[in-house]
Please model this.
Amino acid sequence: MNETQSVSDPISVLMQEHHRAVTQLSVLEQAVNSINAEGFTRQAFESIAEAIRFFEGEFRQHDKKEEQFLFPLLEKHEPGITREYRNEHRELWSAFNYLLSCVHDVEDGRLRGSSRQELVETATRIVRLLRAHIVNENTILFVKAKKLFSEVEYKEFRDSIATISV
Model:
């Protein structure tokens, strides 16, 4: 988000970021399909690199907005409500870090018999987990936040996420 763009509805901002993440998940999924069909190609690796840049940059900032601002406000209303979401974040970032390791192994020529399989399985797992996570946040968590937050809390949330740039 650039400086001239205001954050009028913070939940809409998070949902837009989810939409961009789903687009990058499709890029990652297409790269995996290409690797399965043709093996490692320059195009597949460029697609994976594009997705990695997005997740390392914009999506890390997105998670920061949720972890630092959304989740604590929700916890004030319903303690424990974000436990599963926080666990999913950790699981996703762990899988993502493993994907990075697999990519580095391939780039550095450290190919094992299972390198391709590990990269494909990890990327496929990320796609599956993150798609489900996004659907749950969009349809359950964000809806609940809109119902639970007072006007003051919603404004506080809006102002808080505006401090994190992507």
